[in-house]
Write a structure and sequence with these properties.
single chain, about 90 residues, alpha+beta
């Protein structure tokens, strides 16, 4: 089994970027997914000049978290200009 962590970031001007990371064990993949979510939150807090890195503060004024589960995180900016999806999937090699 291979675990794939993907981060897709899309903007309203039809630009997008994608990062993929492959892992042999679930624990490493979950750690990477958590790290990517934390980095996204920290980046937004820095961008909006928030003193504390907090998802709750971001949700009050800047983003809507569509899903925040153990293997999927999806957020949209309030103005609709940015969407991010960070997902962990399992791949079976044949």
């Amino acid at each position: 089994m291979i675990y794939l962590v993907s981060k897709i970031k899309c903007w309203s001007d039809e630009l997008a970027c994608k990062e993929d990371y492959a892992f042999k064990n679930l624990e490493d993949a979950l750690e990477k997914q958590e790290q990517l979510v934390d980095l996204y939150i920290c980046h937004l807090c820095d961008y909006y000049d928030l003193e504390e890195n907090s998802l709750e503060l971001l949700e009050e004024e800047y983003i809507t978290v569509v899903h925040n589960g153990p293997r999927l995180f999806v957020a949209l900016s309030f103005d609709g200009t940015e969407e991010v999806q960070i997902e962990l999937t399992e791949l079976e090699l044949l």
